[in-house]
Amino acid sequence: MSAVQARAALPSRKLIVVPYRRVSLAALSTNIVLIMLGGFFVLPMLWMLLASVDSNPGWAIKLPSLTLANFTDVLGTAGALSSFRSSLILAGTTTVVTTVLAMLAAYPLSRQHIPLKRSFMLVILFASGLPVSMLLVPVYQLYVTLGWLDSLYTTALFLAASSLPFAIWLLKNFIDAVPVELEQAAAIDGASTLRILRQVVLPLTVPGIVVTSIYTFINAWGAFLIPFVLTSSPDNQVGSIEIYNFMGSHGLFQFGDLAVFSLLFSLPVIVLYLVMSRYFSGAFNFSGAVRG
Amino acid sequence: MLAPALALLGLLFVFPVLYAGYLGFTNLELVGSRSHDYTFTGMDNIVRMLGDYVFVKSSQLTIIFVVGSAIIGQSVLGMALALLLRRAVVPVRLVVGSIVIVAWVLPEVTAALVWYAFSQAGGTLSILLRNSTANYLVLTPLLIVSLANLWRNVAFSMLVFSAGLRNLPTEVLEAAEVEGASTWRRYRLVILPLMKQTIVTNLLLVTILNLSEFTLIYVMTQGGPGIETMTLPLYVYQEAFNFHQLGYGTAISLVLVLFGAVFSLLFVRAARNQV
């Protein structure tokens, strides 16, 4: 059948396949309720977007008198740039440490016979639910003793420790899904465990590694309480604390700068989330995780 | 290969947890002689808590916040969104779904800031309610931080429920539809029972996550006005680092863990009893 014939045949077929569709009241109200909910969700965020380009913003949403001055203001401040650098060091270090250690731990937990493995995984799941507030004082005391206070790298170590349980659990689920036959074949060919991990498992677990590292990075980038307690000097001030201090000190006069700073601070994690969501669909499937 | 992870977890997780169990029963302070010369004081911190008006109030606030914002708000709205989005037309589904998720992905400090702006006198909320001199963060602080928290976290429950709904056996749903069950009966008698495992898991996770919520509330109110939003994590921070009572603060954090354990047991038992 030629293309022309096919096109000619289409309308008649369409008439048969697609029945008359009525717009039901239920479907209409579903969409209207959702649009209203969407409006409620977008309103608070909209303030940040509009105020960032407004030359005279207030607390309310209004049409901006457009300007880029707020952006040049913020990007011209040394403090703003330095806090982005600090956030990057903190979140980057946390992510590298967490992902590498989680990968090394998740592989044997997924593949090898380890005594008490099931209990260990349950303890790990339970540990990721413990409140950070509980660990603050003991960790602070420990950092005083070790002389680790006020360093982004040692602070990252604690962030890594607190994100490790969930990261191990997430990565183990991804590795569980990789067929074990491939590794057995590599083992028969005489490859060492580390080599199997590097050349067989690693490439197949890339989506899992991407999800784990981005998830860890997003959390560490937004972390507030831990750097708030463990760091103090202005050089080590991360973006989240900068925003908090900004609100306390001169936020009342410089809405525009505040909006720009928090917008710029939020952009990296939104972009990363978009990247991650391509790999993400399965990660929220907890249905089989906590079976009693 | 487990060794590096175990070493890090041992030093910065297991040890602090055990250490907290000890420090909570001491009179350790941040500065002064008791910062190095502290002693085990047995039940002193517990006795002090029972007579501490702020602690009692703080516990009540924590329970109201978690039950209202997380257990009821987040779960019900999360389920509603998951169910509605399944039946919405594609553009509505994409736009509304993305907005809800962006609210969740935003750094917590940013969420706190936009809600701070939203609820100030002269802010968007006061204008919507036609009372532009009212600062709702002062008038109804617990309600506003609960709403902000719901706004930020509902995406989590929505995603968990959406995944659960996708995994439902389609034959059962189709059968119920063919048999002519009404929409409401389909939800109540078919979908909800099949989703029980997902619902219990969601309740457990949101309770545990929200019990330790600190940043959003602290950045918006620092626990104020007065102690109107001083939930337990904020009270732990205030006692330990503003009032220098490290030992007492740790003792309060142990109560927070106890709350989490009690809630979790209740959910797991409720789930078992219904089988």
Give me a quick take on this structure.
Chain A has 292 residues and is an all-alpha fold. Chain A contains 13 helices and no strands.
State the low-pLDDT regions of chain A, or none. 1-20, 285-292
Q: How many structural units, i.e. domains of chain B?
A: 1
Q: Number of helical runs of chain B?
A: 14
Number of DSSP helical runs of chain A: 13
Shape annotation of chain B: globular
Plain-language structure description:
The complex is a heterodimer of chains A (292) and B (275). Chain A has helices at 3-17, 25-52, 69-75, 78-111, 117-127, 132-146, 152-176, 180-188, 193-204, 206-222, 225-230, 239-249, 255-280. Chain A has 13 helices and no strands. With 275 residues, chain B is mostly helical. Chain B has a single domain, classed as MetI-like (MetI-like fold). Chain B has 14 helices and no strands. The longest helix of chain B has 35 residues, at 53-87. Chain B is globular. The model of chain B has no long low-confidence stretch (mean pLDDT 89). Chains A and B meet through helix 2, helix 4, helix 6, helix 7 and helix 9 of A and helix 1, helix 3, helix 4, helix 5 and helix 6 of B.
List its salient traits:
heterodimer, A: 292 residues, mainly alpha, MetI-like fold, 2 domains, 13 helices, globular, disordered N terminus, disordered C terminus, B: 275 residues
SSE inventory with pairings:
The complex is a heterodimer of chains A (292) and B (275).
Chain A: H1 3-17, H2 25-52, H3 69-75, H4 78-111, H5 117-127, H6 132-146, H7 152-176, H8 180-188, H9 193-204, H10 206-222, H11 225-230, H12 239-249, H13 255-280
Helix pairs in contact in A: 2-13, 3-13, 4-7, 4-10, 5-7, 7-10, 8-9, 10-13, 12-13
Chain B: H1 3-23, H2 44-50, H3 53-87, H4 90-105, H5 108-119, H6 124-128, H7 136-139, H8 141-166, H9 170-178, H10 183-194, H11 196-211, H12 215-221, H13 232-242, H14 246-273
Helix pairs in contact in B: 3-4, 3-8, 3-11, 4-8, 5-8, 5-12, 8-11, 8-12, 9-10, 11-14, 13-14
